[in-house]
Amino acid sequence: METRRTVRGSSARNYKGGLTLWLILWLVVVKPGGVTACPKLCVCYPTPMTVSCQSQNLTIVPAGVPYNSQRVFLQNNRITELRADSFGFETQVLWLYGNNITWIEAGAFSNLRVLEELDLGDNPSLRHLEGGAFRGLEKLQSLHMHRCKLATLPHDLFHKLYSLQFLYLQENQLHFLHDDLFSDLVNLTHLFLHGNRIRTLTENVFRGLVNLDRLLLHDNRIRQVNRRAFRDLGRLTILYLFNNSLAELPGQTMKDVQDIQFLRLNGNPWSCGCEARPLWEWFRKARISSSDLMCTSPSTRRGQDLRFLREMDFALCPLPDPGSLAGSTTTTFSTKTRWWFSKNKPESKSKSLYQKSSETVKSFPFPAVKPQFPSKYELSADEAALPKLDQEEYWTNYGNEDSSVRCVELDCAPSYDDEAFPSFSSLAITPRPLHFLSLTILVFSLHFLFS
């Protein structure tokens, strides 16, 4: 009898021990799908995974950002440095504009292999960039670095950014651009360089930009343009060079931009002597929309429009040397770019190149309503006057850095539907049924073990 009791007690203890072991394994391995941790002072949305930490006076990138976060919003804080391993692997959109970033470690974004949009604009203390700052961002399509007081750009800054289509560098303090700086950007369609201090456009400054559609260089200090500076820009349709210091423009320069449709050259001190004849002849053949070109010299032609001078005005000028205007317009690439371009020939139309980026903007988990707060970047009158060739393609989303919907939580319009995209905090308040089941099993097991 005693032996039977001993065996029964031993069996009960073994049963309890087995149940306890099974419960622990179930809670660890098959744990209920709880709420993913969200960094302090941030708001998180589960589908798609979005972390919003804007306007929280953060001085560093917050720890604990889930590595599967597809969209990370850190704008309008006081972050000063960006170091490697600060961000996850699945981030597609990263906004860091409006901070105090002064230093970006080389390789800081190297883990972001699927990043498509990076906004570093409005960081006025960002005066220098390391050469490898954007290493690894081979799927990046849109890069914003406007108003950062950048004085120089490393010659390899855009190395291997083959997918880049939109590059915003306006309103910095750039004095010059290295040759072949953009040579790997074979898919770039929009380049914004206005509002800098650039003085010269060299022969190879735009080499490799074979798909560039719009080039904005107004409000610089450009005095000289090499006659072959635009030789790779055969698909350029918009060129803005107004408000510079140009007195003349070689005829060959404009012959290389065969598809140009909109040209603005006003606000320059044009010299309308014999040196203006090649440009005047180009205008006679071109069928484009152009601004005026007011002469400042010689005095007899001051106030006249260079485009409308008469042929007799150049009657005493020597005939131009044919060799000075001849010149090959054959596209010249660096070896690495030529190899990539041969295997990945870009589409012939910028619209098809932009399609993916447009879909990315439309896939944001926010309602398509116009925000009620003022934009952080207002278009100037000059930029607002840009021709609208295709509103759906460009001006809806990229004519202004903020024209796409960028509202998160409290910044959104009053019609924002909170129920449609619940935050993690709201999910934590209302536990899922699986949580109740887990808690019930746990309480029952503890009661069974210790009762």
UniProtKB/TrEMBL annotation:
<dbReference type="GO" id="GO:1905573">
    <property type="term" value="F:ganglioside GM1 binding"/>
</dbReference>
<dbReference type="Pfam" id="PF13855">
    <property type="entry name" value="LRR_8"/>
</dbReference>
<keyword id="KW-0732">Signal</keyword>
<keyword id="KW-0675">Receptor</keyword>
<keyword id="KW-1003">Cell membrane</keyword>
<dbReference type="GO" id="GO:0009897">
    <property type="term" value="C:external side of plasma membrane"/>
</dbReference>
<dbReference type="InterPro" id="IPR003591">
    <property type="entry name" value="Leu-rich_rpt_typical-subtyp"/>
</dbReference>
<keyword id="KW-0433">Leucine-rich repeat</keyword>
<dbReference type="InterPro" id="IPR000483">
    <property type="entry name" value="Cys-rich_flank_reg_C"/>
</dbReference>
<dbReference type="InterPro" id="IPR050541">
    <property type="entry name" value="LRR_TM_domain-containing"/>
</dbReference>
<dbReference type="GO" id="GO:0043204">
    <property type="term" value="C:perikaryon"/>
</dbReference>
<dbReference type="InterPro" id="IPR001611">
    <property type="entry name" value="Leu-rich_rpt"/>
</dbReference>
<dbReference type="GO" id="GO:0045121">
    <property type="term" value="C:membrane raft"/>
</dbReference>
<feature type="signal peptide">
    <location>
        <begin position="1"/>
        <end position="37"/>
    </location>
</feature>
<keyword id="KW-0325">Glycoprotein</keyword>
<dbReference type="GO" id="GO:1905576">
    <property type="term" value="F:ganglioside GT1b binding"/>
</dbReference>
<keyword id="KW-0449">Lipoprotein</keyword>
<comment type="similarity">
    <text>Belongs to the Nogo receptor family.</text>
</comment>
<dbReference type="InterPro" id="IPR032675">
    <property type="entry name" value="LRR_dom_sf"/>
</dbReference>
<keyword id="KW-0472">Membrane</keyword>
<keyword id="KW-0966">Cell projection</keyword>
<dbReference type="GO" id="GO:0035025">
    <property type="term" value="P:positive regulation of Rho protein signal transduction"/>
</dbReference>
<protein>
    <recommendedName>
        <fullName>LRRCT domain-containing protein</fullName>
    </recommendedName>
</protein>
<keyword id="KW-0677">Repeat</keyword>
<feature type="domain" description="LRRCT">
    <location>
        <begin position="268"/>
        <end position="318"/>
    </location>
</feature>
<dbReference type="GO" id="GO:0042995">
    <property type="term" value="C:cell projection"/>
</dbReference>
